[in-house]
Amino acid sequence: MKNIIGAKPSPAAAEVRFLTVDGESAGQRLDNFLFRHLKGVPKTHVYRIIRSGEVRINKGRVQAETRLAEGDVLRLPPVRVSARSEEGASPPAPAREFPLLYEDDALLAVNKPAGVAVHGGSGVSFGVIEQLRTARPAARFLELVHRLDRETSGILLVAKKRSALTALQDQFRERETGKTYLALVEGNWPANRKVLDAPLAKYLLPGQAGAAEGERRVRVVAKDHPDAMRAVTLVKVLARFALPGDAASFSLLAVTIKTGRTHQIRVHLASAGHAIAGDDKYGDFERNRALQKVGLKRMFLHAWRLQFTHPASAERMALQADLPPELHALMPPAALEALAVHPSSTPP
């Protein structure tokens, strides 16, 4: 007898279970599904059982970001959740609305600030989506369409209907969206270097003392690497300037991604010798410290413009999130002018 995903599991579940994904759960990320249905289980443990291969879909190993499909058979390992552990679970996310760029019955777009995760996860109790759900208790459905890194600001889409989620995610998967970011990088980016086509692969840093494994990272690899994923990034130079109080030269780039790999822009730019200013994972630690003293206290990567087809009306949408104040304040007049005249319909 098979269970259909959607019913809340027993708190005392302590045996392997096999669940069949129904239509309502189709398209959802595996980790988000488990967070909702394994109440009282620490998120770190959820990620651990996924990474270890104890959670499987159709008998195969999966990743946290794997999307569920209707008819998938999901294997859950023994997980014991007591009533006491539920009482001691993390408190609900605080209610928070974010600056709205667009909203209708099907979706909403917010301008996510830097420093806020898009969802709770390993080491993070809650993110944008959890706070939105608390702020909107009457909302029957709120799900992330895509992701942004915690330190990246800018446009983030949230679906308000299952049909909108599926349609929008299909567009992202089929590369039918236009995603352009603003990035400030160290040095003078060559104007003729417009296409970065270099495969990427995920890996883990060596575990620290007392930890089972380290943080996730991404690197450029050879095309024949077993974990290689094709990644294509288009780059256009908008302006070159120095920051007040820092003698180094910088390039302001409009970066369009044709594939949505984890840390794609950060790794591609850093591997080309031009790390994003303020990037604490792929940049230079000493340079970042120096930049903090002149006012750049975060990574300069901003999801600037997004084009997609509306899932209900089929209208082509073009959204823009202007630079947040902390980044806008660093821009000289010439750079701001370059942003104003750069048309959203023209790819880099």
Give the helices and strands, then pairings.
Blueprint: E1 3-4, E2 17-20, H1 30-37, H2 43-51, E3 56-57, E4 60-61, E5 73-76, H3 83-87, E6 100-103, E7 107-112, H4 128-135, E8 143-144, E9 153-159, H5 162-173, E10 178-186, E11 195-197, E12 200-204, E13 216-220, E14 232-242, E15 249-257, H6 264-271, H7 285-293, E16 301-309, E17 316-320, H8 325-328, H9 333-341
Parallel strand pairs: 1-2, 9-16
Antiparallel strand pairs: 2-5, 3-4, 3-5, 6-7, 7-9, 8-9, 10-15, 10-16, 11-14, 12-13, 14-15, 16-17
Task: Explain what the structure shows.
Strands 6, 7, 8, 9, 10, 11, 14, 15, 16 and 17 form a 10-stranded mixed β-sheet that branches. With 348 residues, this protein is of the alpha+beta class. The protein has 3 domains: 79 residues, Structural Genomics Hypothetical 15.5 Kd Protein In mrcA-pckA Intergenic Region, Chain A; 70 residues, Alpha-Beta Plaits; 167 residues, 2-Layer Sandwich (Pseudouridine synthase). β14 and β15 form a beta hairpin. It is built from 9 helices and 17 strands.
Overall mean pLDDT stands at 87
Q: Could you say what the CATH architecture of the largest domain is? A: 2-Layer Sandwich
Strand segment tally: 17
Order of SSEs: EEHHEEEHEEHEEHEEEEEEHHEEHH
Strand residue percentage: 25-35%
Q: Pairing-aware structural class of the strands and helices? A: alpha+beta
Q: Segments where pLDDT lies below 50 for 5+ residues?
A: 4-13, 82-88
Described by strand count, sense and barrel closure, the largest sheet is: 10 strands, mixed
